[in-house]
Amino acid sequence: MSEEFDVIVIGAGPAGENVIARAARGGLTAAIVEESLVGGECSYFACIPSKALLRPVELAGEAARAPGLSPGPIDAAAVLARRDEVVSHLDDTRAAGALKTVPATLYRGRGRIAGPKQVEVALTDGGTALIRARHAVVLATGSTPIVPPIPGLAEAEPWTSHEVTAVRTVPRRFAVLGGGAVACEMAQALHGLGATETTMILRGGSPLRRMEPFAGRLVADAFTASGIGMRTNTQVTKVERPVRNGEVTIHLTDGPPVVADELLVATGRVAATADLGVEAAGLVPGEPVEVDDSMRATGVEGGWLYAVSDVSGRNLLTHMGKYQARLCGDVLVARAKGQPEDLPGMRDTATRYGAPQVVFTDPQIGTVGLTEEEARSAGYHVRAVEYDLGAVSGAYLREPGYQGRAKAVVDEARQVLLGVTFAGPGVAELVHSATIAVTAEVPLERLWHAVPSFPTVSEVWLRLLETYGL
Fold first, then answer.
1. DSSP 3-state assignment of 111?
2. CA distance 352 to 288
3. 63 CB contacts (<8 Å, ≥6 apart)?
């Protein structure tokens, strides 16, 4: 006979952990299934290790620009050792142990939907287990990197975010295919840690094309100044790697090929639903699971299936997945107990405002909400204002010649912010204030009375509003 729980979660990353924590807090019994490390991709092969690799590079850059300081070379071995420490040496004993205090039952193995409210687990140590949910099954399996169907690319065994954040030896020649956050962060991290020939390969003219144009330009200028090569407006036609672990040759539509010791492919991710048995729920394997604002899968008879984080396709950011997971867990408790389940905190409203995001390069990029182009395309009557961050006293004091920019996109009809972007050293800590202003739809006339401290970079808020005309 199968074991039975109120809620079963497939995927023990940050989102899955938050679902069961909220469900258990509400008195529901929970099981969680994980075939890899408890804690998920973010904890071991994405957000956490990448920031550990980037932090020394950022500090060295800031120190080099500060009068009176002269940083020496970065000790790559020490940085990699610190990276190993923050990912617990890829040992999830502590994370798995924490599940017992939730409490939740951990099944180690590959989970698949076997029917309505049923999950079959191919156990890591052999055999199978069939478990059943009284109320809901939640998918929290995240996403997997996309490797484009370019001749020779898969055979060349390129790195993805998984391999690059777990790097043991920094390659001398490093090529990066892509221009998004992962591509930019890892290009700068490995270049700062000792790669002497780093080349980014971009389909467009600059990185970070989904953000405000000045963000990509500032990052590209900083990369070029540091010696990172940029092959722009080009595409890969073929990849060759005759000898395993040997050099890789990347042929492009124009110009000479790029020759490297390792190639990182960072061209996007896809929802990890290919082998979850979602067809048993009437869904399409390999596609995101469409959900409503309570994170319940749409079109599934009986309403027993939910999906949070990357697998829902709503937003591929860890903090958004955790947000969705918290509200999902609360919804599950309310629905199981027949309590009100339509409270404001039980619906995903943050997605429609635009999720906050930080690109942890030097300079950093922080953004929330819509870009000017996105806002106009959505039909808003928009006015956008920009300000030179280097002209703010707090920024000037950080370092001479501070290079940065800020932009606010205003809905003229309602006099509220639709989006804000900051670009410059250390701007990550400005993003949450912007997130509050955007998601709370704070009227500009009220925002004017939120006085920034002097002399801080936050004074840019005053300058943006003055530029607007307040």
1. strand
2. 18
3. 69, 70, 71
Domain boundaries, the chain: 3-39+92-144+270-350, 154-267, 363-468
Mean pLDDT of 144-169: 97
* Residue 59 in this model has a pLDDT that exceeds 90: yes
Residue 2's pLDDT is what? 74
What is the C-alpha to C-alpha distance for residues 291 and 296, in angstroms, rounded to an integer?
5
Task: Give residue 463's Cα distance to chain centre.
Answer: 30
Fold agreement between 3-39+92-144+270-350 and 154-267: yes
Instruction: List pLDDT tens digits, range 64-91.
Output: 999 999 888 999 999 999 999 999 999 9
Q: Does the 3-39+92-144+270-350 domain belong in CATH 3.50.50.60?
A: yes
Cα separation, 429 vs 460, in Å, equals: 13
Give the pTM: 0.95
Buried b (16+ CB within 10 A) or exposed e, 410-440: bbeeebbbbbbbbbbbbbbebbebbbebbbe
| Crossing angle for the helix pair 181-192 and 213-226, to the nearest 10 degrees | 20
Asked: is 363-468 a CATH 3.30.70.890 domain? The reply is no
CATH fold of 154-267 reads FAD/NAD(P)-binding domain (3.50.50)
Q: Tell me: cis bond preceding 213? Omega within 30 of 0 counts.
A: no
Residue among 200, 204, 180, 178 nearest 191 (CA): 200
